[in-house]
Design the sequence.
């Protein structure tokens, strides 16, 4: 014998359950979907958070070993920092921050390498990472500056290098480290720069006088290009005898070949 | 007096003068050694004038017109008489051209070095410091000159084919380069200049701005440990460098080989070995042993043992020998010692280097008797004891070389010379030594059996290597015997051939290792010699020059601060 309840049609059953029950049942899939969405967002946030955390740890690590910026780090230090960036990329494979950090570690590896093949592989890796990071963040002047540096180390003097120099200067004209990298790369390839880029370089030198002139002068000194800075009062003041000597001596080195 | 006789005097005087001149100019001594190979890693070939190319090794001397070629991943450091140093990188070729070093007049001195390909580091010596015009450095078709007084330290790299590509990096001093594409007037310390076809020469720039490949190859040479650039007496320093290299190799192997003090060189029939851990095993050729080991030859066994210092012991049948103590440190012979105890049986003993350098370090007991070696040179003697307690010992000692004394339970035997023998037995004072031929027949037979064994030499060895060689030789002998027993069996012949090749390779390895140990012993012996008026007895290897600081890095990559949230300094205004 069937019960009364079982004799009811589904519509009747819904009606007898009351309007609240019906709404709850209708809302359940929404809640589940909402829960899934929230869980996904939470997971994604956690992933991003962990990725960012590891990238930050990597950056902290590099800041500890490069305060003077002129001492080469040791391979263990690089490996430790690189591990943080690799972990970061494990959570978000295309994190521009981690890619940039990992690329910087590749360049650091290159600087301490004594094996040409290994050094070349490192700098190629860095180049690929910077390019990938730029796809995510094309407005970072640091990334463009680093890209220019890798092109220099790859000995690839082409439009990509010139574009990277130009973009870095446009996006971070007042960033001291960007200025310094632009100057360093630009002076290394001064002969290959067109008039426009040379002009941009001179502007960078002028702007650098307002930020970290001593560091800029150090770079200029390493290229013996006092002719570019001694007309600027700020540099002239701190260069002292270097500017005087440069004025007295004919252009040193193969200065005859310079413009 | 004939015309000939008239001429004889002047001609002979002229001939004598000519002979003296020729002797001075063309004798091996006159072909002054320009320098020596200070250090090598990897495969390096050296071709002396008029000779075939041969592998170079540390301590080799070379004269003018010698060519060096390094293989992939190889490096070599050459040091010249005036102190000049050349370090070659991998895949490089250098021709050491005319080299004249006149210590008392540097203006007469000159040096020519030609980099054929690859890279080299050049550190000027006295010639470069005092007579820059006497230094000729060629790299491909480029010429390099030292500008700075006092010399220079620089690296030059050249790839001559198909068109020359090169670069010069200066670590210290200043240089100029005349390249096929134009002159580089000056390169200062820390700077480099590349040159390549169809490109205007750039101004000097910091090495940190060089392509990665160049930076890495420069770093390799930059950080190479080189000797100080002071003048050297080539021959003596070369010998010292060779010894130092061998010592270094030996120290590496010796440090890993302190527990194994000897090995079984030959064994006949069953001989049991009682190890310090309490195990008893059968002796096999190539088996190594440690202090505390004892050997028992059973009724018909015999065994030949060789120790690390070269000491050799042969045990006849029914013998028991314990190695109570043994320590051999080729770097410190005074701290080395050996204590053997022949409990019973027959033993032939041949001394090793411990006895030669530290007589007090060797102790040999036979039953209740003690044997002392009196002579300082090699000693070779037999001793046979049959013992049933202190009062029942019967023994005989016979000497083949050296001199010994024996303290028996019945009184001392003060000296036994080569060819003599002395027996001892209960109730009798030991007699005076007499010829071995007068000894009892059974004693003579026992000693003849000991003397007939084929023995290894008594030079120090690296135990593991020598043991492996002995085992390999034993295996080869067995394989050869099997092949000889079945001449038609090609498989056995091939196995014998393979075993012989393995034995040969193992013997070579053992020989190399033994040479390293011998060099260590030699060096430790030199170290204890007193200084002489001419200087310390030890030849001096030049000390390492202070390491160059790593090339400066004006620029390091900077990571976008804060992960890319650029809050300041972007845009057009200063901040």
Sequence:
């Amino acid at each position: 014998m069937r019960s009364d309840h079982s004799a009811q049609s589904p519509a009747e059953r819904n009606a007898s359950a009351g309007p609240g029950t019906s709404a709850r049942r209708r809302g359940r899939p929404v809640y589940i979907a909402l829960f899934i969405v929230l869980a996904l967002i939470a997971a994604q946030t956690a992933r991003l958070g962990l990725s960012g955390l590891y990238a930050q740890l990597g950056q902290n690590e590099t800041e500890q070993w490069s305060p003077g910026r002129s001492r080469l780090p040791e391979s263990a230090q690089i490996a430790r920092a690189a591990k943080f960036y690799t972990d970061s990329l494990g959570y978000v494979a295309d994190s521009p921050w981690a890619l940039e950090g990992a690329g910087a570690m590749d360049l650091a590896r290159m600087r301490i390498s004594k094996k040409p093949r290994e050094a070349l592989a490192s700098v190629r890796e860095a180049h690929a990472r910077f390019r990938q990071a730029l796809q995510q963040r094309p407005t970072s002047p640091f990334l463009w500056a680093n890209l220019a540096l890798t092109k220099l180390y790859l000995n690839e003097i082409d439009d990509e290098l010139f574009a990277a120099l130009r973009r870095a200067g446009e996006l971070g004209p007042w960033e001291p480290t960007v200025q310094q990298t632009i100057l360093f790369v630009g002076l290394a390839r001064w002969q290959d720069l067109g008039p426009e880029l040379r002009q941009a370089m001179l502007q960078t030198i002028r702007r650098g006088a307002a930020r970290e002139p001593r560091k800029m002068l150090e770079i200029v000194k390493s290229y013996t290009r006092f002719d570019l800075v001694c007309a600027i009062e700020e540099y002239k003041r701190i260069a002292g005898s270097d500017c005087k000597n440069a004025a007295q001596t004919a252009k040193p080195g193969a200065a005859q070949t310079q413009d | 007096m004939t015309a000939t006789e008239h001429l004889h005097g002047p001609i002979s005087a002229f001939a004598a003068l000519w002979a003296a001149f020729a002797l001075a100019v063309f004798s091996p001594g006159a072909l002054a050694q320009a320098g020596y190979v200070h250090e090598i890693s990897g495969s390096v070939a050296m071709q002396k004038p008029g000779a075939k190319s041969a592998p170079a090794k540390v301590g080799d001397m070379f004269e003018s017109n010698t060519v060096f070629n390094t293989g992939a991943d190889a490096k070599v450091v050459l040091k010249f008489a005036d102190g000049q140093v050349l370090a070659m990188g991998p895949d490089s070729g250098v021709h050491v051209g005319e080299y004249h070093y006149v210590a008392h007049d540097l203006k007469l001195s000159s040096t020519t070095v030609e980099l054929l390909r690859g890279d080299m580091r050049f550190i000027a010596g006295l010639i470069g410091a005092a007579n820059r015009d006497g230094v000729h450095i060629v790299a491909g078709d480029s010429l390099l000159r030292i500008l700075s007084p006092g010399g220079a330290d620089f690296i030059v790299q050249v790839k001559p084919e198909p068109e020359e590509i090169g670069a010069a990096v200066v670590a210290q001093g200043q240089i100029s380069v005349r390249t096929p594409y134009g002159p580089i007037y000056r390169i200062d310390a820390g700077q480099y200049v590349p040159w390549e076809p169809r490109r205007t020469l750039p101004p000097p720039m910091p090495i940190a701005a060089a392509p990665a490949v160049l930076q890495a190859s420069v770093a390799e040479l930059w950080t190479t440990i080189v000797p100080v650039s002071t003048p050297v007496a080539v021959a003596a320093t070369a010998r010292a460098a060779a010894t130092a290299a061998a010592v270094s190799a030996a120290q590496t192997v010796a440090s890993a080989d302190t527990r194994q003090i000897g090995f079984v060189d030959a064994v006949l029939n069953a001989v049991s070995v009682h190890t310090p851990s309490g195990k008893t095993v059968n002796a096999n050729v190539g088996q190594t042993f440690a202090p505390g080991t004892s050997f028992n030859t059973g009724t018909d066994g015999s065994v030949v043992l060789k120790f690390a210092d070269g000491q050799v012991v042969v045990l006849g049948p029914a013998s028991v020998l314990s190695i109570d103590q043994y320590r051999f440190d080729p770097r410190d012979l005074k701290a080395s010692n050996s204590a053997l105890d022949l409990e019973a049986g027959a033993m032939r003993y041949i001394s090793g280097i411990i006895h030669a350098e530290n007589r007090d370090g060797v102790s040999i007991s036979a039953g209740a008797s003690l044997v002392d070696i009196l002579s300082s040179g090699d000693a070779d003697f037999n001793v046979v004891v049959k013992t049933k307690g202190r009062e029942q010992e019967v023994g005989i000692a016979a000497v083949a070389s050296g001199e010994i004394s024996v303290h028996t339970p019945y009184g001392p035997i003060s000296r036994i010379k080569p060819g003599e023998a002395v027996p001892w037995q209960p109730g009798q004072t030991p007699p005076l030594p007499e010829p071995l031929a007068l000894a009892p027949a059974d004693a003579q037979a026992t000693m003849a059996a000991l003397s007939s064994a084929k023995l290894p030499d008594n030079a120090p060895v690296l135990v593991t290597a020598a043991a492996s060689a002995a085992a390999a030789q034993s295996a080869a002998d067995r394989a050869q015997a099997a092949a000889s027993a079945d001449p038609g069996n090609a498989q056995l012949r091939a196995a014998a051939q393979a075993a012989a090749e393995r034995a040969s390779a193992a013997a070579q390895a053992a020989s190399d290792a033994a040479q390293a140990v011998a060099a260590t012993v030699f060096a430790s012996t030199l170290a204890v010699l007193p200084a002489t008026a001419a200087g310390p007895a030890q030849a001096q290897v030049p000390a390492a020059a202070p390491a160059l600081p790593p090339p400066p890095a004006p620029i390091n990559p900077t990571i976008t601060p804060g992960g890319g949230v650029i809050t300041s300094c972007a845009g057009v205004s200063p901040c």
Summary: Residues 490-527 of chain B form the longest helix (38 residues). Chain B touches chain A through 50 residues (CB under 8 Å). The radius of gyration of chain B is 34 Å.
